[in-house]
């Protein structure tokens, strides 16, 4: 495989040949670097028990729509995250059960468990749009421009929302740690 100017790998299934086992293997290796981020993002978008199902649904959809991927329109990660967000939204519509979520122990190695729980609780207190932007930028590791493209707003609007969210998170975290 060759690396294009965007850093994305050329997709071997763009040929007119029918899908083969090799195509599946190439697709799997193409999405593999993004699975951890997709799983962590799914766990924040839906209840933890459904996160793996949503990731699987997103990967099936990505496989079905692989011919629509265009590196000029965004990175592989952004394309996969967009599909995952769509699948998570569909899952919430089908099963609207709010379930509190605690992160998996493995999602952020090296971060103290109590600190991770404090941050998770603080992020849950953000307004839904800010929570989504924080999750996409910091957890899914998407650049501001790609978060904006996914949500249909400018990079400047995303930067403003991130700034507001960080200020709100600071306030929440400080309030939670003040002696009572």
CATH topology heading of the largest domain: Rna Polymerase Sigma Factor, Chain: A
Q: Give me the strand/helix succession.
A: HHHHHHHH
Output the number of helix runs.
8
**Residue share in helix:** 55-70%
Low-confidence stretches: 1-22, 96-100
Q: Quickly name the level 1 CATH class of the largest domain.
A: Mainly Alpha
Q: If you average the pLDDT, what whole number results? A: 78
Question: How many beta-strand elements?
Answer: 0
Radius of gyration (CA) equals 18 Å
Shape: globular
**At the fourth CATH level, what is the homologous superfamily of the largest domain?**
RNA polymerase sigma factor, region 2, helix turn helix motif
Whole-number tally of structural domains:
2
- Our estimate of the beta-strand percent is under 5%
Q: Biggest sheet: strands, sense, closure?
A: none
How far apart, in Å, are the first and last alpha carbons?
A: 60 Å
Helix/strand/pairing category: mainly alpha
- Write the CATH architecture name of the largest domain: Orthogonal Bundle
